[in-house]
Amino acid sequence: MNDLLSGALILGFLVIALFFLRFWRSTRDRLFAIFALSFSLMAVNRLILAIAKLPEDDFPYVYLVRLVANALIIYAVIDKNRAHKATPRPIP
């Protein structure tokens, strides 16, 4: 049952990453590329845990990959907001 749930999570993360990659290809917005990278990292993390059959509680370093993935999402949002504020708006 745990393998089934891991497979579903991996598939979900990969589908989300592919959606963001598609948005990035059409807009060339860095936010979508970073989101795709982040969800790909989460899928790889889950894949490693499923293949190696590592219990998450005994190996806390597996959380580092998730930390990096979530930090990438936070960075992307902050970067997007800074870029939006830095662009001067035309005066009507």
TrEMBL record:
InterPro entries: DUF5985. The keyword Transmembrane helix applies. It holds the Pfam family DUF5985. The chain crosses the membrane at residues 6-24, 31-54, 60-78. Keywords: Membrane, Transmembrane, Transmembrane helix. It comes from the Bacteria. This is DUF5985 family protein.
